[in-house]
């Protein structure tokens, strides 16, 4: 099953710095997720100033338990970067 994961960042005073601090860990985790065949695409959501305020990831997992395991280990979740995380089932078009 494929999933569209949308994470929106916290907006407190420390949110931008927290994202910057956690970003290397998030990218390492994303690379490992891609190497495992579970990451299809990743996109930063930008505000009007061009700063990242969230993320969209298209992931695929055999089970919802694998998705939940991913989510419980994603650094932007565990380190308080994403305030909300929305997960919807989806399907990438074969073009």
Task: Give an overview in words.
There is one protein chain. With 95 residues, the protein is of the alpha+beta class. The protein has a single domain, classed as Dimeric alpha+beta barrel (Alpha-Beta Plaits, 2-Layer Sandwich). Helix content is 37%, strand content 36%. The protein is built from three helices and four strands, in the order E-H-E-E-H-H-E. It has a four-stranded antiparallel β-sheet, with helices on one face. The protein is globular, with a radius of gyration of 13 Å. The mean pLDDT is 97.
Q: Work out the helicity level.
A: 25-40%
Tell me what portion of residues adopts beta-strand conformation.
Answer: 35-45%
The largest sheet is:
4 strands, antiparallel
Q: What is the CATH H-level superfamily?
A: Dimeric alpha+beta barrel
CATH class categorisation: Alpha Beta
- The main sheet orders its strands as 2-3-1-4
Rounded to the nearest angstrom, the radius of gyration is: 13 Å
InterPro entries: Dimeric_a/b-barrel, Sec-metab_biosynth-assoc, YCII
Pfam family, one: YCII
Family: Belongs to the YciI family.
Domain YCII-related: 1-89
Short note summarizing the structure:
The chain has 95 residues and is of the alpha+beta class. It contains three helices and four strands, in the order βαββααβ.
What is the secondary structure topology, with strand pairs?
Elements: E1 2-9, H1 15-35, E2 39-46, E3 52-60, H2 64-73, H3 75-78, E4 82-90
Antiparallel strand pairs: 1-3, 1-4, 2-3
Task: For the structure shown, list the relevant keywords.
single chain; 95 residues; alpha+beta; Alpha-Beta Plaits; four-stranded antiparallel beta sheet; 3 helices; 4 strands; YciI family protein; Dimeric_a/b-barrel
């Amino acid at each position: 099953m494929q999933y569209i994961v949308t994470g929106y960042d916290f907006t407190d005073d420390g949110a931008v710095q927290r994202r910057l601090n956690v970003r290397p860990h998030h990218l390492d985790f994303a690379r490992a997720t891609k190497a495992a065949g579970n990451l299809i695409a990743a996109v930063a959501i930008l505000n009007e100033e061009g700063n990242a305020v969230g993320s969209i990831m298209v992931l695929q997992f055999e089970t919802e338990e694998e998705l939940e395991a991913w989510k419980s280990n994603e650094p932007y979740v565990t380190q308080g970067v994403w305030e909300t995380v929305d997960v919807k089932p989806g399907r990438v078009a074969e073009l």
